[in-house]
Amino acid sequence: MDLDLFTESSKKSLRCATCSNYLSYFPIRLLENSDNICGRCLPPPNQPHFRNTVYEKACLGLKFPCIYEEDGCRTKLFPLDIPQHEDTCPCKTPCPLTSVHCSWKGHFSQLLQHCRSNHPNMFLDHSEFDLDLAKSHENESLLEQNSKVVLVIRRKYDSSQKLVTFSVSHSGDRSLKYFCQITFTSGDRNFQIECDAYSFRENKSGDVVFEVNDDAVQRVAVLESQTSSVSSRMNDEMLSVLKCSDCLEFALPPVYQFSGNVIRCFECREKILAKGMSDEGMRSFSVDNVANKLDYPCKYRKYGCTFTSKADVMKNHLKSCVYLAYDCPLRAVAKCEWKGVQNDLLSHLRAEHNHLLSTPTGRSVNFSFLANSKFEQCGVIYAFNRLFKYSFTMKLFKHFWVVELLGQPQCTFKCEFKLYNAKKISNSLSFQQMYVQNRQLLGFSNSYLPHDQIKPFITGNTINVTISIDL
Questions:
Q1: pTM
Q2: Ramachandran region of residue 36, left (φ > 0), alpha (ψ -120 to 50) or beta?
Q3: CATH architecture of the domain formed by 94-226
Q4: Strands (E), 273-324
Q5: How far apart are CA 227 and CA 384, in angstroms?
Q6: pLDDT tens digit string along 50-66?
Q7: Could you tell me the CA-to-CA distances from 443 to 372, 446, 453 in Å, in that order?
Q8: Where is the SIAH-type domain (predicted)?
Q9: What is the largest CA-CA distance in the chain?
Q10: What is the C-alpha to C-alpha distance for residues 176 and 108, in angstroms, rounded to an integer?
């Protein structure tokens, strides 16, 4: 059951009396005054309370939003899945300071208050500061703007090469970009450098590097204004010219042109060449230069992504976008046409393919496969708050097993297959999978056992396998 089915007044009764978050984190404590406290909060001292097991049982089948919903998380989970997800939610905002080794992560709206409370000495009183050129060093500072936005100013000086590396990032909305003018002053001389400051949550590099003499710089002033090098209207008009005629997405450089003003993106051109078809398109470097100045929206915007950036940054973003569109991982065996974002994948599997979804209490799951079937046999394991697809097939008297991690971010995990027969005589095959990039069933050709080696473990026409996953 989804929380959206409740009225607003009913939803208020499902809120914690202390933190105002939903009562989705067990244990739930019922106080003497009838207030409920979620498991994230401590009950008031010296006030009688007991565990509200009736509420917990009633809400086991109710899906709640993540507490980081306001920060972009669209995941909805059952209460038993909430603690692990909230602990590792990718939408939690980390402290932007790297030099203090702060482990804080929380709501984006709490970031400014966190910095004020925990790192007050990192704030600059005003936008001007001295730059020491006596020795090599790295520094970072915070500069508050309009009591809302924090600018993170990083500088590094290499005395051996006389190089200064300077960057500015901001804590504003990730769709905003700040234009910064950096003025370096020494005596009655000064020079200016301009740079773009992106949200530090986008992990973009806006470094400015320049060479200085020992007496060239004494003070630095950072001036910021929210602006863009190309107006929004002009940006949209120029992007519309770069729409690929095949996929209808905006073409990232390199852009290929054909007669009749036809545009084709790099990916679509590669698909044509892979089919052995001729391609008479010409790459225009002048068009590429213009395209590199434009702000591109993410191609997964129809699924909810609001990310916007220059072309080079967008290419990296598309590899790990949380709104990346996925086909159903069981598409082939279940003939399922579903397509959606990663955050909706688990809900889809539970609703449509629950018989092929396993949720182990530990790290191991037992399965039975047909030994002589030439068709793919597969399913999905939900463990460590991640989804893993397992596949089994036989080809040329070899039995193949593959486990792949679905979604982002990719990580390293260990997978072990243990075969056993009715007499519990066991044999195991273990291997490491590193950053799975492809979705091919036989992507790991070394993950198989010959049929002769499998025969002792075949009971009738069945192979019993235990799959263990560990991060």
A1: 0.44
A2: beta
A3: Sandwich (2.60)
A4: 282-283, 296-297, 308-309
A5: 42
A6: 999 989 998 888 899 99
A7: 21, 9, 22
A8: 61-120, 293-354
A9: 91
A10: 15
